[in-house]
Amino acid sequence: MSHYRLKTKYQIEGPYGSREEKTLYAHHNLGCDVVSFYDQDGTFLFCVEDTVENNLFDAISRLFYPWDQDGEGLRPGVDHIKPEEFKIFGH
Question: Which of 16, 26, 57, 81 pairs with 49 at a CA distance of 20 to 30 A?
Fold first, then answer.
């Protein structure tokens, strides 16, 4: 099986508007077509199948910037949460 491991830096907001640099690690397992992500402490975060169309990354991308090109409506595939679904947030 073939593997490769990569890393990149990103920033999070710290106290008083400061920025803290973190490292994100990715383990690409080409034998099972999965990319696993770990934080800089080695804690497993999540994994994504890299051969599936409309995978988790596609969904995150849509929700990260949900507006259509005109900025007046939602992109296709993005909907408002119904009040009865709010319980997912523990409310």
Answer: 81
**Contact, 49 vs 57, CB < 8 A?**
no
Q: Please report how many Cα atoms fall inside a 13 Å half-sphere around the Cα of residue 69, on the Cβ side.
A: 0
Cα–Cα distance for residue pair 49/58, rounded to 1 Å: 11
**Start-to-end CA span in the chain (Å):** 45
Taking the C-alpha atoms of residue 2 and residue 20, their distance in angstroms, rounded to an integer, is 33
Per-residue pLDDT tens over the stretch 50-73:
888 999 989 999 999 999 998 889
Q: What is the pLDDT of residue 67?
A: 95
The model carries a pTM of 0.76
**Are the C-beta atoms of residues 35 and 27 closer than 8 Å to each other?**
yes
Tokens describing residue 10: 């990103």
